[in-house]
Design brief:
Number of strands: 0
Number of helices: 4
Helix content: over 70%
Order of helices and strands: HHHH
Keywords: Membrane, Transmembrane, Transmembrane helix
Protein name: Cytochrome b561 domain-containing protein
Shape: elongated
Structural class: mainly alpha
Radius of gyration: 16 Å
Length: about 130
């Protein structure tokens, strides 16, 4: 039988890994998106879309792990931050699929920068402050 501490450490390990994966995917998305915007390559657009799906899945995994970790006494602020980042990435993916006008592309780019900052903060919090203050 597993103890509550081992479940917490498993959830925390998954949270950290998924948060770091989300942050890495967000940075790669930023670079690919910038290149796509200037070069207009269809291949880069396809890769940008695939990395976006990877970021979405990683953020959902991080949100579930943060929920489990938060219920076991972890940092609930981190849980809500992770959930918010996952929702933003979901909205961002939808914006990317709908981007038919220049205005939607600009909104997609601005939300992408917000997501990158949020994902980096999420990864930093999961490593440095995973537990709430007592």
């Amino acid at each position: 039988m597993t103890s509550p501490n081992s479940r917490t450490s498993t959830a925390l390990s998954v949270l950290r890994g998924a948060s770091i994966a989300t942050a890495a995917a967000a940075v790669v998305q930023f670079l690919l998106g910038g290149y796509q915007f200037t070069a207009g390559s269809a291949t880069i657009a396809q890769v940008h879309s695939i990395v976006g799906l990877v970021a979405l899945v990683a953020s959902i995994v991080a949100a579930v792990a943060a929920g489990l970790h938060g219920r076991a006494g972890g940092n609930r602020g981190l849980m809500f931050h992770t959930l918010g980042t996952a929702v933003l990435i979901l909205i961002q993916y939808a914006l990317g699929e709908m981007a038919s006008s220049p205005a939607l592309v600009i909104v997609h780019m601005i939300v992408g920068v917000v997501i990158m900052v949020s994902a980096i903060a999420m990864a930093t919090l999961s490593v440095r402050k995973p537990f709430a203050r007592a």
